[in-house]
Amino acid sequence: MIADQLDEELTREMLDLLILELPDHQQNLCAAWQTGDYEAMGRLVHKLHGGALYCNVPGLVDHLQVMKASLAGRKAETIHQSLRDTLAAIDEMLNRD
Fold it and tell me: At residue 4, what are phi and psi to the nearest 5 degrees?
C-alpha cells in the first residue's frame, strides 16, 4: 500500500517534470524539422516517448509512435503531418487546467 502511494507520487512528480520540459521539446522538434535533421528529431521523439510512456500519457504516446514511424519512412510530408499532430497534443497538455 505504501509502495503504491510512493509509485503514484513519483509518477506525478515525473509528469510534472515532463510538462515543464514540453515547451523545450516543442522548440527543439521545430528547430530539428526546420534544419531537416531527422536524426535529432528521432532522438527527441525517443526521449519524449519514453517520458510519456512512463507518465501514462496515452494521447501523446500515440502521436509519438506515429511520428517514429514517419521518421523511419523518411517522407517529409508524413513527418510534417505527424509533427503538427504531436505539437497539437503537447499544446493540449500545456493548456490543461
Answer: -65, -40
- Picking from 51, 40, 20, the residue whose alpha carbon sits closest to that of residue 83 is 40
Tell me the C-alpha distance between 11 and 4, whole Å. 10
Cell of 20: 515543464
- Give the chain's count of helices (H) and strands (E): 4, 0
Q: What is the tens place of the pLDDT at every residue in 65-81?
A: 999 999 999 999 999 99
Checking if the pLDDT of 1 tops 70, the result is no
Taking all residues of the chain, what is their mean pLDDT, rounded to a whole number?
Answer: 91
Q: CA 87, CA 83: separation in Å to the nearest integer?
A: 6
Give CA angle at 74 (58, 47), nearest 5°. Answer: 40
Closest listed residue to residue 94, CA positions, set 17, 10, 12, 20? 20
Q: How far apart are CA 75 and CA 38, in angstroms?
A: 10
